[in-house]
Amino acid sequence: MSSYKDLDIYKISLSLFYEVHPMSLKLPKYELYELGSQLRRSSDSIVTNIVEGYGRSAYKAEFVRFLTFSWASSLETINHLEKIKHLYGNLFRDDLIQNYEILSAKIYSFIKYVENNWK
Questions:
Q1: Using alpha carbons only, what angle is made at residue 100 by residues 41 and 27, rounded to the nearest 5 degrees?
Q2: How many angstroms separate the CA atoms of 22 and 119, rounded?
Q3: What span, in angstroms and rounded, lies between the C-alpha atoms of 45 and 16?
Q4: Which region among 22-26, 93-97, 107-111 has the lowest average model confidence (pLDDT)?
Q5: Global pTM exceeds 0.90
Q6: Multiple choice CATH, 4-117, 1.10.287.130, 3.40.50.720, 1.20.1440.60, 1.20.120.1810
Q7: Sign of the CA dihedral 17, 52, 73, 104?
Q8: What's the CA gap between 114 and 108, in Å, rounded?
Q9: Integer Cα distance of 74 and 100 in angstroms
Q10: 54, 7 in Cβ contact below 8 A?
Q11: Helix, strand, coil tally for the chain in percent (to 5)
Q12: What per-residue confidence (pLDDT) applies to 92?
């Protein structure tokens, strides 16, 4: 792997961010800067922490630290999506939560891989 762009978790998280961001702008106006903003920030944080962690990958502990931030942001994003689904019904596609759950599992697996196999 020669770049963070080669990581599946990067590709998936960026793709999901591009889906969630415009959908979050469809929330009621009073939620745009509340729950909508939190969703946009947590979704963006996933991909951003993968990139920043990769930039520090020469230091295994730093890489794991930022991957852990990414994993936590993925869980936060799932929580925001679940709240939106409960409050506003099917404003978002039903598979978004499932896709973020899959991403979370992939990030967690990658954390374990880095902890056990990174130089």
A1: 50
A2: 39
A3: 12
A4: 93-97
A5: yes
A6: 1.20.1440.60
A7: positive
A8: 10
A9: 7
A10: yes
A11: 80, 0, 20
A12: 77
Q: What is the per-residue burial (b if ≥16 Cβ within 10 Å, else e) of 41-56?
A: ebbbbbbbbbbbbbee
Give dist(CA 14, CA 94) in Å, integer.
19
Q: Are 78 and 104 in contact (CB under 8 A)?
A: yes
Which of 102, 100, 104, 80 is CA-nearest to residue 91? 80
pLDDT digits (tens, 9 = 90+) for 18-47: 999 999 999 999 998 899 999 999 999 999
Average pLDDT, the chain: 95
Residue 56 identity (one-letter amino acid): R
